[in-house]
DNA sequence: GCCGTTTTCGGCCCGACTGTTTTCAGTCG
């Protein structure tokens, strides 16, 4: 029996939904499977064990049929219903859904009428002009499919935050400078601080929407205009990133901003709450829902806060809008006061030219002062990371001396903590002996090799490291590189429990390639009493800017100022690091 | 397939845009 994970359950449910769509099944049944996948994916608890034990009663959205199917899948590793559906279509057909402009109806037509079952077959059929002949298709559709196929080979379909943020801020600035724009903001997953984004959404309030969409389509950055109407325009930038503009009236603006910020799941939950109050909510406003018996006046709405207030909720920060308990918390008035960039007083885990950084200790210190930080933690690589010019004991102790000199001269302005990003070796031991580590102010323990251990062994390896008195924090927990490499297998729950027991901090690595540990785990970790540190892992001064991405992760993870070590004043950090780990 | 202080049956979010049509289906968000 193959090993069943949460991922197995969600992907099977999603695949069933797709296959049912191909067959032209009842759309509501299809949605039930999709929602089932969503619920399983974000379930707070060991959903795999619950499914195996047939203990799924009372989970909203998982009815009798899905319970049976999940139980069968979790206990046997297979699901007959799924296998049978799958056998009706070739495997390559799933790739067709990824082509822009192709949905279930068109994919079904391509397969049923032309036998197209793979991307190469699709390309060939378009080039032969066969696709244009199908009813419901035409010359333009055929051309667009070819373009979409070419684009797939050339561009990524998702983008990391530094790329997306840079483009978004440039365009937002231009929008706000436009004389006909009253208010403007970017919405979508970027506003929610997701770890990667698929496209950018801009909302503007204006009295001249058509003029704005026209202007947007002519932006310098627009490599291609995908669509343009009187209220909506989509362009594609040179790097393939799609940007959508929605132009609305000033009255509609808060609704459009709320709606397009999402998430979809959050909005669905919000709308159903509105309906219970006799209100219908969409991207343009509130209206009376159902049989309008006697409708109370709908309160005026000027901004997002008013929308939430009308629904009896505190304003929910965009980062929390994932339908993971934020609506309930807002209802009870117990939303956390989230940490902000301005709360940060220092930062740990930064590199210098001593290992693989591009700036000297003095340059990094100078940049930290310019940023207004009160303290800085240096943590260069250890000797096992020879590819990164890791420090041996001698060079490390020399650096400790240099930092001492810095503190003698500049400590009043910027205090530097001497540390090490010490490698966790394959067996969980550390790259430096305890007596060396004891001479440092702090350490970040990270895995830089032997990534392919199985989950149990990898988890044991990390736990052994955390049990060391001298390990202050764990670096980039899973080693993932977003859009490039999955993290190594590790049992997050056990790591979080161990961090809580041993008093080990888990860093949020703020590098936009990592953003590790993932935001989805932080609320749980926080509730167990685990502390984090927002670490830019800066290899050059500009990379202190990564802190803003880490703040996004922390906020998405429901973290408050008091959950983040580097919001503490210097004296408190010194006191904290001076205490034995267990007492922190 | 799921759900129920309107319902155990009959609902389930919907508006904008494009392309293929000749009044609308499909896709997207």
Q: Please, could you describe this protein's structure?
A:
This protein has 584 residues and is α/β, with parallel strands linked by helices. The chain folds into four domains: 149 residues, DNA polymerase, domain 1 (Orthogonal Bundle), CATH 1.10.150; 92 residues, Beta Polymerase, domain 2 (2-Layer Sandwich), CATH 3.30.460.10; 74 residues, DNA polymerase, thumb domain (Beta Polymerase, domain 3), CATH 3.30.210; 243 residues, Metal-dependent hydrolases (TIM Barrel). Helix content is 42%, strand content 14%. The strands form four sheets. The protein has a seven-stranded parallel beta sheet. It has a five-stranded mixed beta sheet with strand order 2-4-7-6-5, sandwiched between helices. Strand 8 and strand 9 form a beta hairpin. The two termini are 44 Å apart. The chain binds one DNA strand of 29 nucleotides through helix 2, helix 4, helix 7, helix 9 and helix 14.
How do the helices and strands line up, and which of them pair or pack?
Blueprint: H1 6-23, H2 27-41, H3 47-52, H4 64-76, H5 80-87, H6 93-96, H7 104-114, H8 119-127, H9 139-154, E1 159-160, H10 161-177, E2 181-186, H11 188-191, E3 196-197, E4 199-206, H12 209-217, E5 222-228, E6 232-237, E7 242-248, H13 253-261, H14 264-276, E8 279-281, E9 286-288, H15 304-310, H16 326-332, E10 346-350, H17 361-370, E11 375-381, H18 393-410, E12 415-423, H19 434-437, E13 442-446, H20 455-466, E14 473-474, H21 492-502, E15 505-509, H22 522-527, E16 532-535, H23 547-556, H24 570-578
Parallel strand pairs: 4-7, 10-11, 11-12, 12-13, 13-14, 14-15, 15-16
Antiparallel strand pairs: 1-3, 2-4, 5-6, 6-7, 8-9
The chain binds one DNA strand of 29 nucleotides through α2, α4, α7, α9 and α14.
